[in-house]
Amino acid sequence: MLSLAWQTIRTRLGGFAGAFIAILCGTALVAGCGVLMESGLRAGVPTQRYAAAAVVVGGAQSVRPPGADALSSEQVGEQPSVPEALAGRIASVPGVRAAVAEQSFPAQVVTASGEVLGGAQSLGHNWDAAVLAPFTLRSGAEPTAPGDVVLDADLARRAGVDVGGQVRIATRSVPMTFRVSGVVDSLSRQSALFFTPQRAAELTGQPGRAHAIGVLAAPGVAPETLAERIGAIVDGAEVTTGVERSTIEFLDVSQTRLLLLTIAGSFGGFALLVAVFVVASTLALTINQRRREFALLRAVAATPKQIRKLIGIETTLVALVAGVLGGASGLAVASGLRDAFAAIGVIPADFELAISPLPPLAALLLGLGAARLAAWAASRRPSMIRPVEALGEAAVERRELGRVRLLTGWALVLAGLGGAMVPLFLRGDIGTAISTMATLVVVIGLAVVGPQVTGLVTRVLAPVLGRVWRISGYLAGANAQANTRRLAAAVTPLMLSVAFALATFYSQTSSTAAAAEETARSTTADYVLSGPAGVSPEVAAALARVPGVATATPVVRTSVITVSSMGDSVDVQRKPAQGLAGDQTRGALELGVDSGRLADLAGDTVALSRSEADWLDKKPGDEVTFYFGDGAPAKLRLVATYTHDLAFGDFVLPVALAREHNGGRLDDSVLVRRSPDADPAAVAAALRSLPYPGLTVAPSMSAPEGGERQAQFYLNLVAVGVIVGYLAISVANTLVLTTAQRSREFALLRLIGTTRRQVTRMMRLEALVTVGTAVVVGTVVAVVPLGLLNAGLRGSPVPSGPWSVYFGIIGGAVLLGLLAMGLSTWVALRARPIDAIGLRE
Predict the structure, then answer these.
(1) DSSP calls for 268-295
(2) Each residue's pLDDT tens digit, 11-69
(3) Taking CA 836 as the corner, what is the angle to CA 832 and CA 839, rounded to the nearest 5 degrees?
(4) Which residues does 420 contact at the CB level (< 8 Å), separation at least 6?
(5) Whose CB has fewer CB within 10 Å in the chain, the N or C terminal residue?
(6) Angle at 506 between CA 504 and CA 508, to 5 degrees
(7) Which residues contact residue 50 at a Cβ distance below 8 angstroms, ignoring those fewer than 6 apart?
């Protein structure tokens, strides 16, 4: 059987090429996602400030509620801290030479012209923590007086100062003047400023807390051994060694690792689903082309089991070679995805990948499994035909579909349409995700009943083609009607490409537009003040004393982590939140409060969106439990509920509480509403004259949100681009296969008098029917969920987003279809008819 399978592959290389390409690309995509997942588990960036520390102890980087399993955890959104006193306990551990608590806080150099130096993130630290790098003095001495500061060499150069010079530094207040006592080596990822330990403790705004504790090991003590000893005495802290130390030093590294796990897991699972679908479609088409061969085998007494075994061995051989090459190519895919994610700002550009044989091997096994599953499904029918029916079955394509297949396909279509209605009742990201998934379910359902759908379409188009183009049109219509399965095989991947691209792109643009529209309606401020690294909490208080200012509302963008029970499992999610001054929102923000009073938002209180309050079954006066963005547990009293959750998220906290659990202790912006009788020019001039460098004053703010939604949008674009690229390869692959198998048909038409031009025109018309059907059905399939999504989010069924993208997707699909069928037709017509008619099928 193995010899027969190998001979079949050798003599039918063209037929198996389609399956080979589909498996190769699918395996490469899955292997690339596997590399990203492994990188999320054990990769990172080299540590800088803690290079000399054997162990670094920091706050817990994720929240895992009591009773939850290892998978039920969520990455913190803000930088957690640890008690400074913990350093004394760690110092008593055997093998510890020293344990140093490090303070870390925003500190920026202000130039003589009043501008804040840009560039890398600028952080201030206590000088005794410099030993953890270690930072080496190039010149000068360590800071000894409260007015001393040590700068790194790059920062000193850009500020134009040297040892003994004066420099203005802004932390959480107005800029203060310091004397440069020394200059140390620079770091690539950050700018460093060092103060005396006492002054650093004042400037950090967190008495008794530290960013991390660096541990220096005694000679001969291994970091892993030391970490194990320290882990036994700390409770709830993160103990790290090696590359893990960077997750404590840089919050974005810790977040990137979880993000890669999430992206690669969901993206890889979706890619695997699409790969199975594409491989199954390609194999079914390849096997369908061999009807005569299998009919002959059945007629000479081959059993159904032998037919299935032959197909399985053939598929395994092809999948094995394609899987090995695809697994190796996955490394290039992972590198390309990493670079793309870095280009859009989702992950740090210096984040390294973890390379091992495990992801390619796993992708190979998954590719083999998907191919064997697809081969089993495709081989069932050719293996079950009775020998007496074999030759007749081979002569004409079977038209009707089985009852089980029809029921399955239309059930999937109905299920997808039902899922598309969810956004009418459930707003937010969950509703958007369900809408996109509903589109995919509908497409899969239509693919299952594809021959029936294409049969309905061709019955309408065939007479029209015959009347307009006569001979070529009649032949095209007759071919489409007689070979609905072949037409469905060509339409399905093209339809999937169109529907998936449209649904994914326009669902994101519609969600973003809904949030922007609601924010614009909810924001009535006249000005917004913001800064490159945040706004000092003093600014809002200073604005209240500016003549002509009615209200000044500080805004802190943060996140919270919620925990809910779903049966026996625990669901942990990180959600965006806002910190607002409840007594200052009137006139600047309208949250759509429907119960309670937002003016009571102070102290240990919280306001929830109506949907979140209903989900938690809470009303004003009830206690709400969750976790702050830095992982600290919260137990707050609910004072109000509101309806504008797209603009403000599901949680609104008192601004002081939000600052307390925000790593920089800064505001993101301040919204200003002027008095009705105030002079706009005078108010604007007063705002710009505030003694806080770097402040930007802009008229009327339309969206008080950061770049997280935009980053998510670009992230989805990258994912969609990769999937659509894979589908495009599948489309071209399928169209070439369906056309190339018809060389004997073309030869017969030419021998009975049909001209080469008429055959070419026939194929152009068939290509238009194929592409047109895929475009129309794919558009309808995407438009229905999108219309329901927009109706639920924006009150209008018209999707939001540029029309140019739609025409670009449609134009690409049309061009791809016409080129694939046109080129394969040209190749098939090159042979002389008398030679082609004798070729084996």
Answers:
(1) HHHHHHHHHHHHHHHHHHHHHTTHHHHH
(2) 666 667 777 888 888 889 889 989 988 888 888 888 999 999 999 999 998 888 876 66
(3) 155
(4) 435, 438, 439, 442, 784, 785, 788, 789
(5) N
(6) 70
(7) 56, 132, 133, 212, 214, 245, 248, 249
Same domain, residue pair 239 and 365: no
Any idea which residue has 């460093």 for tokens?
192
For residue 679, what are the contacts with CB-CB under 8 A and spacing of at least 6?
548
Same domain for 37 and 70?
A: no
Mean pLDDT of the chain, nearest integer:
84
534 with 626, same domain: the answer is yes
Task: Characterize 429-446 residue by residue with b for buried, 16 or more Cβ atoms within 10 angstroms of its Cβ, and e for exposed.
Answer: eebbebbbbbbbbbbbbb
Residue 353 to residue 31: CA distance in whole angstroms: 13
Torsion of Cα atoms, 479 then 480 then 482 then 484, to 10°: 140
Whether residue 166 lies inside any domain: the answer is: yes
**Is there a single domain that holds both residue 181 and residue 286?**
no
- What whole-number distance in Å separates Cα of residue 333 and Cα of residue 792? 37
Structure confidence at residue 722 as a pLDDT band (50, 70, 90): confident
Which of 245, 261, 294 is the last residue before a domain boundary? 245
* Whether 31 and 131 share a structural domain: no
Is residue 398 predicted with pLDDT exceeding 60? no
Asked if residue 160 has pLDDT above 80, the reply is yes
Q: Is 425 within a domain?
A: no
CA dihedral 287, 289, 293, 295 (to 10 degrees): 80
The answer as to whether 426 is a domain residue is no
Amino acid occupying residue 25 = C
Domain total for the chain?
3
Average pLDDT over residues 686-714: 71
pLDDT reported for residue 394: 44
Task: State which amino acid sits at residue 496.
Answer: L
Task: Kindly state whether residues 218 and 179 are assigned to the same domain.
Answer: yes
Domain range for 604 is: 524-699
Is the pLDDT at 393 greater than 60? The verdict is no
Residue 54 one-letter amino acid: A
**pLDDT score at 839:** 53
Joined together, the tokens standing for residue 348 give 């740090």
- Type of residue at 731: V
Calculate the alpha carbon distances from 423 to 255, 564, 609, 726, 801 in Å: 29, 21, 17, 29, 18
CA distance 233 to 228: 9
Q: H or E element: which one contains 209? A: strand 209-210
Highest mean pLDDT of the ranges 369-378, 522-531, 712-721: 522-531
Q: Is 581 exposed, middle or buried (0-12, 13-18, 19+ CB in 10 A)?
A: buried
Q: Please state whether the predicted TM-score (pTM) of the whole model is above 0.70.
A: yes
| Predicted local distance difference test score (pLDDT) of residue 706 | 47
- pLDDT of res. 301: 76
Is it the case that residue 559 has pLDDT exceeding 60?
yes
The tens digit of pLDDT for each residue in 191-214 reads: 999 999 999 999 988 889 999 999
Q: What is the pLDDT of residue 709?
A: 59
- Of 652, 670, 699, which residue is a domain's last? 699
Q: Are 490 and 813 in contact (CB under 8 A)?
A: no
**Sole residue written with tokens 């152009």:** 764
Using CA atoms, how far apart are residues 437 and 450, in angstroms rounded to an integer? 19
Q: Which of 338, 330, 358, 327 is nearest to 260 (CA)?
A: 338
Query: Does residue 605 carry a pLDDT above 90?
Result: yes
In contact, 183 and 163? CB cutoff 8 Å? yes
Burial of 346 (0-12, 13-18, 19+ CB in 10 A): buried
CA end-to-end span of the chain, whole Å? 22
Phi, psi of 418 (to 5 degrees): -65, -40
Q: Quick one: 41 and 101 in the same domain? A: no
- Taken in order 400, 406, 409, 415, the sign of the CA dihedral is positive
